[in-house]
Amino acid sequence: MSTLLSVRNLTMRFGGLTAIDDLSLEVPAGRITGIIGPNGAGKTTLFNCLTGFYKPTVGTLRLAHPQHGEMRLEKLPSHRVARDAQVVRTFQNIRLFPKMTVLENLIVAQHNVLQRASRFSIAGLFSLPGYRQAERAAVARAATWLERLQLTRFADHAAGDLPYGTQRRIEIARALCVDPVLLCLDEPAAGLNPRESAELNELLLYLCREQGVAILLIEHDMSVVMNVSDHICVINYGRKIAEGAPDAVKNDPHVIKAYLGEDEEEGVMEEYTEERAS
Amino acid sequence: MSAVVFAHHGLTPAERLRDAGWIAFVALILGVPLIGLTTVDVGGRLAVDTRFGLLAMAVIAAFGGRLLMRWSLDHLGARKLARQRAATDSGAGRAQQVVNVLGWLALGASVALPLAFSDNRYVVDTATTVLIYVMLGWGLNVVVGLAGLLDLGYVAFYAVGAYSYALLSTQYGWGFWEALPVSGALAAAFGILLGYPILRLRGDYLAIVTLGFGEIIRVILVNWTEFSGGPNGISSIPRPSFFGLEFTRNAPEDGHSFASFFGLEFSAMHRLIFLYYLILVLALLTHVFVSRLRKLPVGRAWEALREDEIACKAMGMNTTNIKLSAFAIGAMLGGFAGVFFAARQGFISPESFTFSESAIILAIVVLGGMGSQMGVVLAATLLVLIPEFGRNFAEYRMLLFGMAMVLIMVWRPGGLLAHREPTLRLSADGKAAKGGA
Ligand SMILES: Nc1ncnc2c1ncn2[C@@H]1O[C@H](COP(=O)(O)OP(=O)(O)O)[C@@H](O)[C@H]1O
Ligand SMILES: [Mg+2]
Fold first, then answer.
1. Residues B425, A102: contact at Cβ < 8 Å?
2. Closest by Cβ to B298, choosing from A52, A121, A142
3. Can you give the pTM of this predicted structure?
4. CA separation (Å) from A109 to A62, A148, B318?
5. Cα torsion B364, B367, B369, B373: sign
6. How many whole angstroms separate alpha carbon A169 and alpha carbon A171?
7. CB under 8 Å to B69, separation ≥6 — which residues?
């Protein structure tokens, strides 16, 4: 099992606040890596550093890209992280293109491929065969993901008008249209009902096992994170406090303390997660 | 918000009365010191007098007014809700059909107009003005309506186009058709020049800087006398010819004028009608160009940028290029309109390129419904015609103009045609079908 992303000594400071404090982390290829931790632990900040939205104060982010070799993510602007390094993310507070249709959202995600095919829009303006073919391919790809995520019937609806759970799925489908090597999901189960969470589990496993996409998953819903993660990393106050297989992490005293405060008995975490799962 | 909610549950008459009663009570409390008591001058000394009759009237007015307001708000809310429901059904598709039919009708009418009014100078002239604004509106629509970049200095590109043609033709003897692409390219270059430093700005800040840019261009034109003729402007700009045929009374010695070539009696209307058709063709080309761009990756990227810039970046889109392309294309179209304007007027001065022009063009885009091509036509027609009809009202003209704008925005806050047609649809068999205009 090779390492896809290696985070070394990552530190992110905002003025006096250290949101991420000397964090090191390995993300294996083709696996699901869970990131958990209390609110304000620095999980979203980690994603922002990874995807070029924040420049880390200190640290390196090395991606072993299957085609392009080693890439240093901290040196790339956000759009190149997605385009060249193919590290694609979703947002904790969904960011779709609300007035555009679901299909258009997924087509926009393939902008770079289509823009190249349209040759500065000249081929597109005259609707040359090469461009038409590229557009058909883009739609076919979008249609495939729509089908897989059971979104086909919403294809021509404005994305912003759809229910929350559906929007979450659209955001994932859109990210998949960018053709990610590493998919970073920021609380994808937030606001989903239990049935939708179960479907999400299934989808994540499918992406990872069948499509070979490595997934970095921030999630509070233990029924999701504990069931699908191969490996979990627990962050508190910007530091990694525990790491390992789901079962090991669940029983780690540091984790229980971080989640439930001091003076709690061991094993409470177990109850907590079961309660969430039911 | 609350109006909609109330409309949903429906208010009983008793509730309405209680609501109005509360407002009347508040009016009474406030009214006692404000209306009920007044100071009077009694022989040099101040005394307090009471005006309880007036107060009673004010309280009754507040009661009645509140009842009426509540009722009309509920009514409006219910209608809005009904409309929203209709829109989510097949209503949207039908709305688009109506717009398409309207578009073809408008096209037919505009082609026929000079034939019907071939001896009415005023009508043809006004229609030409409408078309200039339609073209400007379509140009600005790219920047504001599609890309969502609030540009308050659009007139700068109009000015760049106009002055480019004026200078190229008067100084270097360029013809209209040679100058057109060059001036458009110059305006596009200015668009990029403006776009570059303000890439990071959004919303209000962007609006202020673009406003400043528009003013800078105007101030340069006013003050750089050797270059632009200063406040006196540039005059005797050559008029466009009809494939080399001039619209003059007397044919040149070695050739023909338009009238002599076609064996017509000379008429000043020929040129006006030609200019009208010229701007009609330019505007239609603009329309086709922009509508096609909207359905291409650039166009979708502009709309995505308007919707969420951060999401664009997360999808690997280079937002710098997308913004610059929007500024450049918008500026180029404004430049084309400017070239036509200079050629039509034969005289330009900085006075034609003040902020109020930018404001009118922006109003056309916003009133029309951001991003809607047909909306721009409607709004441009309204905004040019209202002041024309208003001429009879002399000084109340601008008041009328403002009132009309406020009314339209109250009636249709999303613009006259707020409906957005998708750039492509998923047809039943999973293949894409192109959306309408
Ligand atoms: N742009 C920013 N400026 C200042 N503080 C920030 C910024 N982004 C995040 N933070 C702070 O960093 C800490 C970690 O936040 P975040 O990564 O969003 O936590 P979470 O683990 O809940 O996703 C919080 O204290 C937050 O206030
Ligand atoms: Mg977060």
1. no
2. A121
3. 0.81
4. 24, 17, 12
5. negative
6. 5
7. none
What is the domain class of B98-411 according to CATH?
mainly alpha
Cross-chain Cβ contact A108/B315 below 8 Å: yes
Nearest to residue A233, comparing CAs of A7, A20, A25?
A25
Between strands A87-89 and A182-186, the pairing is parallel
Q: In the 3-class helix/strand/coil scheme, how is B138-163 assigned residue by residue? A: HHHHHHHHHCCCCCCCCHHHHHHHHH
Q: For residue B423, give the nearest of A52, A104, A178 by CB distance.
A: A104
CATH 1.10.3470: which residues of chain B?
98-411
- Which residues does a 6 A CB cutoff place in the pocket of ligand 1? A 14, 17, 19, 37, 39-45
Rg of chain A in Å (alpha carbons): 20
Token pair, residue B429, equals 């068999």
Pairing state of beta strands A58-65 and A3-14?
antiparallel
Furthest CA-CA distance within chain B = 95
Distance CA A41, CA A5 (A): 21
What does the pLDDT look like over A102-155, one tens digit per residue?
999 999 999 999 988 888 788 888 878 888 889 999 999 999 999 999 999 999
Asked whether the ipTM of the predicted complex exceeds the cut of 0.95, the reply is no
Alpha carbon of B167: minimum distance to chain A alpha carbons (Å): 31
Q: Give the tens place of pLDDT for each residue, B325-364.
A: 999 999 999 999 999 999 999 999 999 999 888 988 998 9
